[in-house]
């Protein structure tokens, strides 16, 4: 019953796959041997001569879709993960297509690890002397759970596959743009964006938010808020004016009786027409700064 | 133990004599040949490194002593296969059902095997492995892609005609312990006679 269900589920995919397999070219790649030689050269030179996972020297095995060269032990682990995660090939026992070779040239251990070990701390790396179980656990964490991978790893690999015409980006017949040479540079660009700091990445994704800087935050806070009884939060420098206006409209003189200092100051201000942003003493500022807050609180309580 | 025990019980139920046979495990690399051998030999699942040299294991399936030979599946290693065809009583061909891109390659290898003269009489058990993985193809599709439609000889019916080569597809998952018990029961039916 279950099998039948899954059959139905995959039916669409199935037909697609059938077509793909039927249309696959029968002929062997003529430069298989040449490609294999190139792959062997590639895996014998640094940084590809050390296993991408456990750093053991001697890498005869490649995980093509990850673009890495690994040792025999780690290739066994990769094989066990299934082809959805890693496609393992031998550098000398398998045949290599042009696309696979190009992909390996673009990626390689260094670039691939930049992405898959982006968030790795120094102690977490697998050592060549580690046991098989440790290696299996580590490789699973690295490629299945992607614990250390950078966030744009998928995007990067997609770009690399496209450049190499690997997998579903396979070259169509009659479409022969040169691949080698310019590829490396373009991928370099992608690698650079990989090292971008998170704030910039956020801005790219969500755009620059208005309240990003502290200054803007403050400015936003001090914008007048209109409550039921008019403006609720009066900025400190407007307070004097507003107080005068409010008291004046009710015909009440300014409350000079409370403090002689204010009484002494106010007439001077009114006479001399001092601009609001004149430097004032610290004591004054404190005194002036407090009332709006109180008013603010009151207003907040009264407004539903 | 599951299917294996079940298979063993089933085989001994029919009381096979102490016949001996020789089975080859063939298939593309990473199809699960060595894993299958390990599973049959000591019922353990291991992560195996790629096979370079053929692994030979003596098994007793029910009453039949079987010498199973597990060959490497890489392209270059496949050249060795023909050296072992001689006196092969049965072929087990494993296909990674989850690796859709390489089904075609598997079909090519299978076609070559089916055309080989030395093993023209040997029963052919085809195991579509790894059906536990997401994206694995079903039996219908596998039969279609491998071009076996109409060639299968039936899972329960036994072929009497000596000129017809027994051939059947079973879907298996070694991880889930599914399917291979039935497959080997089917194969044992034919080994018994040979």
Give a verbal description of the structure.
The complex is a heterodimer of chains A (304) and B (194). Chain A has a domain at 31-169: Arf GTPase activating protein (Annexin V, domain 1, Orthogonal Bundle), CATH 1.10.220. Chain A contains 14 helices and 5 strands. Chain A has a 3-stranded antiparallel beta sheet. A two-stranded antiparallel sheet of chain A has the order 4-5. With 304 residues, chain A is mainly alpha-helical. In chain A, helix 5 (98-106) packs across helix 8. Chain B is α/β, with parallel strands linked by helices and 194 residues long. Chain B has a single domain (3-189), classed as P-loop containing nucleotide triphosphate hydrolases (Rossmann fold). Helices cover 28% and strands 21% of the residues of chain B. Chain B contains 5 helices and 6 strands. Chain B has helices at 3-13, 33-42, 103-115, 139-145, 180-193, and strands at 20-27, 55-61, 64-70, 90-96, 124-129, 167-171. Chain B has a 6-stranded mixed beta sheet with strand order 2-3-1-4-5-6, sandwiched between helices. The mean pLDDT of chain B is 85. The interface between A and B is medium-sized, with 31 and 32 residues. Chain B: It is a peripheral membrane protein. Chain B: Belongs to the small GTPase superfamily. SAR1 family. Chain B: InterPro entries: P-loop_NTPase, Small_GTP-bd, Small_GTPase_ARF/SAR, Small_GTPase_SAR1. Chain B: Its main location: endoplasmic reticulum. Chain B: It comes from Angomonas deanei. Chain A: Keywords: GTPase activation, Metal-binding, Zinc, Zinc-finger.
């Amino acid at each position: 019953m279950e099998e039948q269900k899954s059959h139905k589920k995959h039916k669409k995919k199935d037909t697609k796959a059938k077509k793909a397999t039927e249309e696959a070219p029968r002929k062997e790649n003529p430069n298989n041997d040449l490609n294999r030689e190139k792959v062997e050269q590639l895996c014998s030179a640094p940084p590809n001569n050390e296993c991408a996972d456990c750093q053991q020297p001697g890498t005869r095995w490649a995980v093509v879709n990850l673009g890495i060269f690994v040792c025999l032990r780690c290739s066994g682990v990769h094989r066990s993960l299934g082809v959805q995660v890693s496609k393992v090939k031998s550098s000398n026992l398998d045949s290599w297509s042009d696309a696979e070779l190009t992909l390996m040239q673009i990626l390689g251990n260094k670039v691939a690890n930049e992405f898959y070990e982006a968030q790795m701390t120094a102690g977490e790396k697998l050592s060549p002397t580690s046991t098989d179980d440790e290696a299996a656990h580590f490789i699973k964490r690295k490629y299945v759970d992607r614990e250390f991978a950078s966030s744009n790893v998928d995007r990067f690999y997609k770009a690399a596959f496209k450049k190499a015409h690997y997998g579903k980006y396979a070259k169509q017949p009659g479409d022969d743009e040169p691949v080698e040479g310019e590829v490396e540079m373009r991928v370099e660009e992608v690698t650079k964006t990989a090292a971008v700091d998170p704030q910039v990445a956020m801005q790219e994704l969500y755009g620059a938010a208005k309240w990003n800087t502290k200054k803007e935050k403050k400015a936003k806070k001090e914008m007048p808020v209109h409550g039921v009884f008019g403006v609720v939060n009066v900025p400190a420098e407007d307070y004097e004016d507003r107080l005068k206006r409010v008291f004046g409209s009710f015909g009440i003189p300014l409350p000079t009786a409370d403090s002689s200092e204010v009484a002494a100051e106010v007439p001077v201000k009114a006479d001399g027409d001092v601009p609001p942003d004149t430097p004032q003493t610290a004591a004054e500022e404190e005194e002036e700064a407090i009332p709006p807050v109180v008013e603010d609180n009151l207003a907040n309580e009264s407004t539903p | 133990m599951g299917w294996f025990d079940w298979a063993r019980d089933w085989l001994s139920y029919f009381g096979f004599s102490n016949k001996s046979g020789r089975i080859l495990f063939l298939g593309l690399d990473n199809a699960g040949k060595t894993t299958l051998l390990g599973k049959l030999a000591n019922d353990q699942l291991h992560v195996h490194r790629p096979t370079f040299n053929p692994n030979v294991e003596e098994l007793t399936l029910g009453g039949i002593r079987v010498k199973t030979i597990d060959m490497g599946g890489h392209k270059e290693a496949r050249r060795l296969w023909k050296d072992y065809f001689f006196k092969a009583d049965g072929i087990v061909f494993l296909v990674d059902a989850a690796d859709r891109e390489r089904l075609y390659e598997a079909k090519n290898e299978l076609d070559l095997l089916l055309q080989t003269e030395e093993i023209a009489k040997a029963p052919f058990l085809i195991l579509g492995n790894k059906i536990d993985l997401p994206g694995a193809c079903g039996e219908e599709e596998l039969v279609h892609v491998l071009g076996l439609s109409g060639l299968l000889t039936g899972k329960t019916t036994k072929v009497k005609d000596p000129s017809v080569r027994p051939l059947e597809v079973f879907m298996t998952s070694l991880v889930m312990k599914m399917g291979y018990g039935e497959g080997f029961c089917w194969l044992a039916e034919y080994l018994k006679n040979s």
